[in-house]
Amino acid sequence: MSEASTGSKRPLSPHLTIYKPIPTMVMSIMHRITGVALYFGMFLLTWWFFSAAAGEDYFNWVNGIFGSIIGQLILFGFSWALVHHMLGGIKHLVQDSGRAMEKAFTTQMAKAHVVVSAGLTVLVWIVAYLAG
């Protein structure tokens, strides 16, 4: 009889609850999450474009939704996801060339990634409010 049918005590495959979270792992997961968030955020952008084509009344209604506190928080999250994902893409592009692969450096980059993405997002919003 084979081992599979006798119920042998084989180890389980590793999963996220076994590994200790490290900055590079967390940033990899966040890159995937922001990619999904951007996918759904594109629906909001498309809705806004369609509302502009649908007429002034509908456009003003959609702008009212995006201008509310909840709408502003969603737009802020979308813009942060965009900046965070873009920085992750740039990092991957650099690492695909074989550079910046040392463990200590990638850990520092992962920690800086959060700070830089938040700072750039806030800067973009400040510039947008000053321009608008």
Describe the structure.
- This protein has 132 residues and is mainly α.
- The chain has 5 helices and no strands.
- α2 runs antiparallel to α3, α2 packs across α4 and α2 packs parallel to α5.
- The longest helix is centred in the N-terminal third of the chain and has 32 residues.
- The radius of gyration is 22 Å and the shape is extended.
- The model has no long low-confidence stretch (mean pLDDT 91).
Quickly describe the structure:
The protein is 80% helix and 0% strand.
List the helices and strands and how they pair.
Layout: H1 3-6, H2 23-54, H3 56-67, H4 69-96, H5 103-131
Helix pairs in contact: 2-3, 2-4, 2-5, 4-5
Can you write the helix and strand succession as a string? HHHHH
Largest β sheet strand count, sense and barrel closure: none
Percent of residues in beta strands: under 5%
CATH topology, which one? 3 helical TM bundles of succinate and fumarate reductases
Helical content stands at over 70%
Poorly predicted ranges (pLDDT <50, ≥5 residues)? none
End-to-end Cα distance: 75 Å
Number of domains: 1
Name the CATH homologous superfamily: Fumarate reductase/succinate dehydrogenase, transmembrane subunit
CATH level 1 name: Mainly Alpha
**Helix/strand/pairing category:** mainly alpha
Second rung of CATH, namely the architecture: Up-down Bundle
